[in-house]
Amino acid sequence: MATHETLQQLSALKVSASFLNTSTIIALSVFFTLFCACIIIGHLIEENRWANESITALLLGLCAGGVVLLASKDRSSHLLVFNEDLFFLYLLPPIIFNAGFQVKKKQFFKNFTTMLLFGIWHTIGAILSATDSVCTFQVLSQDETPFLYSIVFGEGVVNDATSIVLFNAIQSFDFNNIDGTVALNLLGTFLYLYFTSTALGIVLGLLSAYIIKTLYFLRHSTDREGAPMMLMAYLSCILAELLNLSGILTIFFCGIIMSHYTWHSVTESSRITTKHAFATISFIAETFIFLYVFMDALDIDKWKASNARFLLIFFDSSLISCGCLNLELMSPDTLLQFSSSEDTSSQDSAVMITCTIIVVLFSTVLFGSITKPLIEAVLLRHTKTLDTDATDMQSLEDLRILFLENGENTDQGSNQQAAPRASGLRLLISYPTTTVHYFWRKFDVKFVRPVFGGRGFVPFVPSSPTDAVDEAS
Amino acid sequence: MATHETLQQLSALKVSASFLNTSTIIALSVFFTLFCACIIIGHLIEENRWANESITALLLGLCAGGVVLLASKDRSSHLLVFNEDLFFLYLLPPIIFNAGFQVKKKQFFKNFTTMLLFGIWHTIGAILSATDSVCTFQVLSQDETPFLYSIVFGEGVVNDATSIVLFNAIQSFDFNNIDGTVALNLLGTFLYLYFTSTALGIVLGLLSAYIIKTLYFLRHSTDREGAPMMLMAYLSCILAELLNLSGILTIFFCGIIMSHYTWHSVTESSRITTKHAFATISFIAETFIFLYVFMDALDIDKWKASNARFLLIFFDSSLISCGCLNLELMSPDTLLQFSSSEDTSSQDSAVMITCTIIVVLFSTVLFGSITKPLIEAVLLRHTKTLDTDATDMQSLEDLRILFLENGENTDQGSNQQAAPRASGLRLLISYPTTTVHYFWRKFDVKFVRPVFGGRGFVPFVPSSPTDAVDEAS
Questions:
Q1: B267 and B317 part of one domain
Q2: N or C: more exposed end of chain A, with fewer CB within 10 A?
Q3: At what angle are helices A346-381 and A383-393 packed, to 10 degrees?
């Protein structure tokens, strides 16, 4: 009977997994079924140039939201209760990290100044679409339109820092006495935030490179190398949030540093794995965001709270959105920011949300569909211009020849570097970007890569013994 | 002034990421710092045969819990508020899926009957450690001790189904009138649950194989193939929970099917990526569980609630735990099951929790440390026995020769199969496991692989064009 008593005692405890919250399970089932459908349909229509995964997710999300709304008899279309933590802490970091990890660095930094100016200048846009970088991947291709991609995506990343500065500024400044000092103060805060966030990302990226290069050396294991990379990248983002810096900027630069140094120190299999796994995780997070946001778009409580006023604001915003030339791509992120602020005045909040939903729907479907055909049309007309651009990309090699025009080999011996450095100053004015890149490369190869690893500075690491394909069937 | 008003209106909304809950950020920072430390230290002491990642996580978790306890002045050591959803819905599925994905199938199914008997029989153990499979990876190696691994891990997977059956049984049966019918009823329910869960996993695994083979064919992209695999595996687990089946069993079999069919239809890069990414995610989830559980172990509320009674139970359980020969490895999972049941009678619950914590601590440190040296010692003594075992593994080839002893080629022509089939029945009695495997392989190659893909049944798929290594620096 001892067994019997124990069993009865145990039955008082929730022992089994089958006793999880049923509504959570139902919501997750519906959501993941849609998620799978979305990815598979998105893949099928990939070749259709008018559609993309974001539009599929949008339509599927809206349909599902509608079905849930009807099924729940107009009460509410809320299927999953999400909060801003889910978005800012778990979905956005992998997307931005992957962007930093996969970015074509030379091309990206070439347009750095333009990007920074756009990012600082477009302040109001930054509030409405603080983290609109997610949309960039859906409509712009890094390979086809590198310049546009750098500007739009880079601006989005810089926007995050700008929006933090602005938000803090709004809370602390007295706007009745705006003068030059305030503007300078804002600029100073922005620059401080920008550089500290970047520095934190670089430090953690280099730390990961150093750890992988030294500690993991000679006992590499593909299954163990991905974990510290992922976790340290995520840690950089969390630490930035802890220090009230821009997590987006930090994890973006952490990704850049990791792809430049850490990635070269791991095994061959790890390189393939990390590259594709980060891209896959980012892709899943992107689709997740689109699907979720539009499933929530039919939330009737918000629509009821916002009365006719929204129509006015809608047309206003749509005009701004269409009319402005700042290439701002509206994204669902904005929605999440607003929809999570439920403790504020509900009427204003609801108006903002419904209005943003319409702008986002409008811009995703319209701009999302026409971007690809538009770019194709423009590319066809300006093929010659692009050819020049492509030639310009190889000008580093030309510059190296310029530096070496007197026949000296700058890579050998430090005594011989005086001559090229003197001509370097002259060249810095003529070809600023290329010259900066040239000297950065020299510095990198001479001082940074020997310590932290990088292309050409780590011995070939074969895959670990456990990498062999499973022999059993 | 319009801009000014808009700005002030916006400031009422939570716009910026910096306004996330500060306590969440602090908790995440501490947790992920420890997480990184744990993985790096765990890697460094990997060669030490007395330690492993679980012991590192345990000690670091306890230290961190102690520091938090002191810092919060004995109030509580709770740093992160977790619930059973986190564990059962997000941490356990990737671990079990990876186990199914990486399992050496031939070796595993060879011991299927033994495993099943252990799993059904060890019912009381199943309640205290329903999902103890996580611990198996930490102390047993699939390569070094395949038999032990299959039995212990397989038993753990089957345990999950058993625990659901038992739990439902306890609630619905009248234990004052136990007779043979009840036992038969229980067995029937178990078998139903076991087969439906397995079938669901197989169906979703085959569905993913079919989708990848047909829809993704000729337009493979490594970044897009991992996502449907991950999501459909997760969907199988969630659907099982929805239908009150065993999610563990389902996702385990889904993993097996995916590695047998789906995995062979993707690009070469995808194969490397999925194999290692699943292992990495599983590794992260395992370390996460160990670290979390032991950070929570110093929760003084629970310790206070459980008075002297727990000492009695502790010695009782320790004796059972040490004395029994069922190879049950205590795992932190058990703790989570108990610690999440806060709405039950608090005194009993607290006793169960504190007692389980001690048993888990004890068994992780003691058994975790001595398992490796013990196995090494046993292996040295029984090398000859193992050699026989290894030879036995190649008996499929021998059997094939037996089948073909009259010189017929069974693979050609259906008319000639009567003779080997007749001798097959004779062989089934003499070599049951090998014969079943032989006929399964024939069936698989003839009917299943042509439809769903698999080794040798998909054309070589080169890596996608985007797989080329980034040329920029």
A1: yes
A2: N
A3: 90
